[in-house]
Amino acid sequence: MKRLALPALVTVAVLASGGTATALGAADQPGGTGTGPRAEDYTWAEGRHAVLPPGGTGSSEAQCPPGQVPTGGGYNAFDAGSIDLVVSANSPTSDGWRAVARNTGSTHTVEFWAVVLCAPGTQTRSPRLVVVTR
To answer: pTM for the whole thing?
Structure first.
């Protein structure tokens, strides 16, 4: 597995969502000394656990604390039997991660929730590109 520096992941995740991100330098981060990011400066957050009965649909949103931006995320699901889940949305929001799913099973209830990894920084929206014709 290839490892990337965390500020690069911030940029990739936010740019993929159509925005721009500015990750703080290590010296600007809480407790930063200029030696690089510290694990305790990052946050793992879970959204509300949605209970999906057979055929049921639900959503969950995990939010980053103030002063942090989403760097990646997804969802988790739990069931005592087999999981039959169709995820229709799984994407970053301006301050976290949102996921929507439907339990396509006919016998088991599924517990489903969004997760997000957050890093110190700020997020802004980039302007839309305009097509220029000649």
So the answer is: 0.65
